[in-house]
Amino acid sequence: MNPRSGRLLRKGRLKDKMTDAAASFTSSLEFDRRIFEADLQCNMAHTTMLKEQDIISPEDADKILGALQKLEAEGVDALDLDPSVEDIHMAVENYVTHEIGEVAGFMHTAKSRNDQVATDLRLVLKYEVEEIQDDLLRFIGVILDMADNHRETVMVGYTHLQHAQPTTFAHHLLSYANAIKRDYQRLKDAYQRIDMSPLGSAALTTTSFKIDREMTQKLLGFGSVMDNSIDAVSSRDFMAETVFSLALLGSTLTKICEEMILWSTYEFGMVEISDEFSSTSSIMPQKKNPDVAEIARAKTATLYGELMAILTILKALPQSYNRDLQEVTPHLWNAVDTAHSMLNITREMLSSIDFKKERALKLAKANFSTATELADLMVKEKRMPFRLAHQIVGRTVTTALENGLEPEEIDSKILDKISEEVTGESLDLDDELVRKALDPSEVIKTRKVVGGPSPEIVADAILKLRGFIEAESSGNV
Ligand code: ARG
Questions:
Q1: Which atom of ligand 1 approaches the CA of 325 most closely?
Q2: Residue 279: what pLDDT?
Q3: Is there a catalytic annotation at residue 171?
Q4: What is the C-alpha separation between 140 and 25, in angstroms, rounded?
């Protein structure tokens, strides 16, 4: 063991050092590297405030700040990270002590590792969430570019994974964009509760020194000061809700991945994922497998697992600092990194696909996905109750399937026959109207309701989302 390690902290109350196993078991150093820069910022802000408030002398403060700046330039590897040092806060203090001697001890005036670690974690998480938010906006932008090229690309929409109604690929893509927009908004909302300064809470009840919490809050760029010092050192709900938001984002991404996997099967044949995001088989030479989408689909389990671990650690903990809180941190970072990499790879994979327009149109035409519109036509033209029209069209489809008729072979004569069976009366629908009601491209043009698939409505929706990206990118984040 390095002779410096652990000495600063343990030479008062404790006589014996921890066993090596106990030191490694309790050390957070492995994942504390991530908060190294934030810890320096925190120490610098705190020391500056102590100086401004005349709590420590300007000379001592400047010595401390000089050592911290030197460490900043040298980087985390300049620290002694032996597990017996416990954590990054002690490693930094050890370094400063080594540089300037006992004066370093003033740095910890009116500060505890409890408020310090909470501050560091919030600083780093703010940065990470901002990065993810930027990438979410980027993802929405990529989807909008794709949608712009597919406003007239007809495909069948599914419910229960059965052919339901015709739509366009652009309309379907916008369903992804809107889900991702909400994932973005959830993170933006969670951000407000990350962006609060616990610093100055010290161990749990603040201090009798005349510290200025607002000064450190501003120096560190936090939106506000946390109102209660016990809450400030206890709370990790900001982590839980961030990871929840990431878990839901994972859920959105898995849906996209799942559809790309499904649509790239021979049976669907609607999509080809580019080679760069595919693998082959070691034995079956013909294989093109969607491995990137599969791994992304699976990794959402990690996000859910990390969320569950965090919630479980936090449950029933007494207020204020408990060392259990340290165990939340690695779950947080794993969730952040997993979600971030999933997000970027899914964006790249999706933008690489080749959407097979002809195949999609063929599927849209094949299986009576326009049946609802045919029933609607009867309501519009004959003022027939929808439920009755539904029955006539349902029977028409069954008859067509029994007789091997394609949707485009249905004409007003066939409809009259079935209508007479059901109602005793014929319909006398115009054949051109029947043809249009059965043509997926024509049906889409008529869906002009907000949120729907008509190309003009989709163009408006794309513009609206572009406006959202612009507003969020220009400083609203
Ligand atoms: N490594 C600790 C953590 O991550 C820092 C705070 C330690 N505080 C203490 N009183 N032991 O939570």
A1: 12
A2: 87
A3: no
A4: 43
Task: Choose among 77, 120, 78: nearest CA to 99.
Answer: 78
Q: How many residues does the chain have?
A: 477
Task: Supply 353's token pair.
Answer: 């696909």
Q: For 115-159, how does the pLDDT look when each residue is reduced to its tens digit (9 = 90+)?
A: 999 999 999 999 999 999 999 999 999 999 999 999 999 999 999
Instruction: Write down the pTM of the prediction.
Output: 0.94
Report, as an integer, the average pLDDT of 465-473.
97
- Residue recorded with tokens 């990206």: 469
Residue whose CA is closest, atom 7 of ligand 1?
113
User: What is the average pLDDT value for the chain, to the nearest integer?
Assistant: 95
Beta bridge mates, 208: none
How many angstroms separate the Cα of 161 from the Cα of each of 133, 165, 262, 397? 32, 11, 11, 19
Place of tokens 């209660």: 228
pLDDT tens digits, residue range 47-61?
999 999 999 999 999
Partnered with residue 355 across adjacent β-strands are 271
Domains of the chain as residue ranges with CATH: 4-109 (1.10.275.10), 123-152+169-200+227-356 (1.20.200.10), 371-438 (1.10.40)
User: Cα–chain-centroid distance for residue 310?
Assistant: 17
Residues 6+ apart with CB under 8 A from 221: none
pLDDT at residue 8, as a whole number = 67
Judged against a pLDDT cut of 50, whether residue 2 lies above it is answered with no
What is the C-alpha to C-alpha distance for residues 477 and 472, in angstroms, rounded to an integer?
6
Tokens, residue 58: 């300007």
| H-helix or E-strand spanning residue 29 | helix 29-32
Could you report how far apart the first and last alpha carbons of the chain are, in Å? Answer: 46
Q: Closest Cα partner for 293 from 321, 251, 254?
A: 254
Spacing, Cα 323 to ligand 1 middle (Å): 6
Tell me how far apart the alpha carbons of residues 203 and 238 are, in angstroms, rounded to a whole number: 19
Question: Is 160 labeled as catalytic in the residue annotation?
Answer: yes
Q: Is 114 a pocket residue for ligand 1 (Cβ < 6 Å)? A: yes
DSSP state of 268: T
Q: DSSP letter at 31?
A: H
How is residue 155 written in tokens?
Answer: 């495909």
Residues 112-127: tens digit of each pLDDT: 999 999 999 999 999 9
* DSSP string computed for 57-68: -HHHHHHHHHHH
Distance 25 CA to ligand 1 centre (A): 13
Report the candidate in 306, 366, 368 with the shortest Cα–Cα distance to residue 338.
Answer: 306
Cα–Cα distance for residue pair 219/208, rounded to 1 Å:
21
Q: What is the CA radius of gyration of the chain?
A: 31
Going 409 to 410 to 411 to 414, the CA torsion angle's sign is positive
Report the C-alpha gap between 386 and 380 in whole angstroms.
9
* Residue tagged 């066939």 (tokens): 414
